[in-house]
Design brief:
303 residues; mainly alpha; Histone, subunit A; three-stranded parallel β-sheet; two-stranded parallel ribbon
């Protein structure tokens, strides 16, 4: 686990060289076909050598939920274990990790940007209009929430946006036992400036590789729009705005950098709550040896 640009994929591939592991991606953008450069998807050569399960499994026109991820990941883990290997889950989507281990009874934390957006829509359209939207997406929740109860309407729509799952379904879910022994490795860079530098360098590399052309190709399909979960991924939303003419190239660059930094900040906040994780400084020259030792001890099983 770790924030964007912290080196998760490279470390996972190194571990796959040393141990009998199969990789599973835990990333809400990498599930979508066609989101390659901007999502920092491993390149074809890397995927040929180090196959990642749950990459390129969904068209970007079709939303993918945390509940679907949990079912898919458990299925893949069962297959890996049956083949005599150990699953290595790698990614930065905290909600997916949480859903996998604990089920979906825990609701996501508030998202300030999304709440601001919903508040603006409520002010412009009226909360009755947003209640009608909720009734279409989650009739059970809408039946319990008044048409002018702005706070609860906002929260219910927020949960749907963040998880792809109705609030009523999440609230009705029961905690489940996770049937695996787990070693959590959390890449946690303590020098935020170094992480920010890597984020900026990666965006420049993406632009050189043709990120904007990738988004142009997605737009050219004609069946995609900026409100789809796939296109709300960091970088894609800002690129779409730029190609729509809403912002110029410099503003696109600035917004993409800012949004990626905010994503990293949220990921680090989530990692701090993972108290049973082994915290690793990915910018230390010695961290690979420490990780390999921890994995070796885990693989041999408890004493």
């Amino acid at each position: 686990m770790g924030p964007t640009a912290s080196g998760k994929t490279a470390l996972a591939c190194e571990l796959a060289d040393r141990f009998d592991l199969d990789l599973i991606s835990v990333d809400s953008a990498l599930v979508y076909r066609g989101l390659n450069i901007g999502a920092a998807k491993p390149d074809p050569a890397t995927l040929a050598k180090y196959p990642h399960r749950l990459i390129d499994i969904r068209d970007p026109a079709q939303p993918y939920s945390a509940a679907e991820f949990r079912a898919d990941a458990l299925r893949e883990m069962t297959a890996i274990v049956a083949a005599g290997k150990i699953p290595l889950l790698v990614g930065g989507t905290g909600l997916y990790f949480r859903a996998l281990q604990g089920g979906l009874s825990d609701l996501p934390e508030a998202d300030a940007d999304l709440r601001r957006k919903l508040a603006e829509e409520g002010a412009a359209q009226g909360w009755a209009s947003l209640h009608a939207r909720l009734a279409r997406a989650d009739p059970a929740a809408a039946a319990r929430i008044g048409a002018n109860d702005a706070q609860r309407i906002q929260r219910a729509l927020e949960v749907i946006e963040l998880t792809g799952t109705p609030l009523s379904a999440l609230q009705g879910a029961l905690p489940v036992r996770f049937p695996y022994r787990v070693l959590k490795l959390a890449l946690f860079p303590h020098d935020r400036a170094l992480l920010h530098a890597r984020i900026a360098q990666r965006l420049e590399a993406m632009l050189t590789q043709g990120f904007l052309d990738e988004v142009r190709a997605l737009r050219a399909r004609g069946d995609l729009h900026a409100d789809l979960p796939a296109l709300r991924a960091v970088g894609y939303r800002q690129a779409w705005q730029h190609l729509d003419g809403e912002i110029d190239a410099a503003e696109f660059h600035n917004r993409a950098i800012f949004a990626t930094r905010q994503l990293a900040k949220r990921q680090l906040t989530w990692l701090r709550a993972e108290l049973d994780a082994l915290s690793i400084e990915p910018f230390s020259p010695h961290y690979r040896g420490d990780v390999a030792k921890a994995v070796a001890e885990f693989v041999t099983g408890p004493a």
